[in-house]
Sequence to fold (153 residues):
Amino acid sequence: MAATDNTTRVQDSWRVVEKDLDTHGIKFFMRIFEIAPGALQLFSFRDVKDLEKSPELKKHASRVMGTVGKAVAGLTDVKTLIPVLQALGVQHSLYGVKGEHFPIVGEALLWTLEQGLGPAGLWTPEVKEAWTETWGTIVSVMKPALEGVSVAN
Fold:
């Protein structure tokens, strides 16, 4: 499978998801907290009642999904994207994110994409493979940057 095919699949499928970033972002975070309830402690909105309807969660989720969108758009210019992902890894280390959180986030991301694309029949094995590969690449750049800062501190 050519990398450009996967890039196209990721970018085309993202165009569907980005039509409702707030909803998908909230689903994404709620799934993270379902998989790993302790992850909620990393966030400032950890004590909010009725989390799913929280303006704080919505704001954060929207910002994160916007960042995912920028990364998706940047897949066609990897040389520019790599330093952005490295900086994101460093930034997340300062929030207490650890390397072991990446599989949880990846699982939540793929689940969220499946929820958003599946009803329209757009979550195909090829799209899932493209997103899985893309997530793996993102982790391969962010995780060393995150762990490098964590070890140094």
The radius of gyration is 15 Å. Residues 6-147 form a domain with the Globin-like fold (CATH 1.10.490.10). The first helix runs from residue 3 to 17. The helical segments are 3-17, 21-35, 55-73, 78-94, 102-117, 125-152.
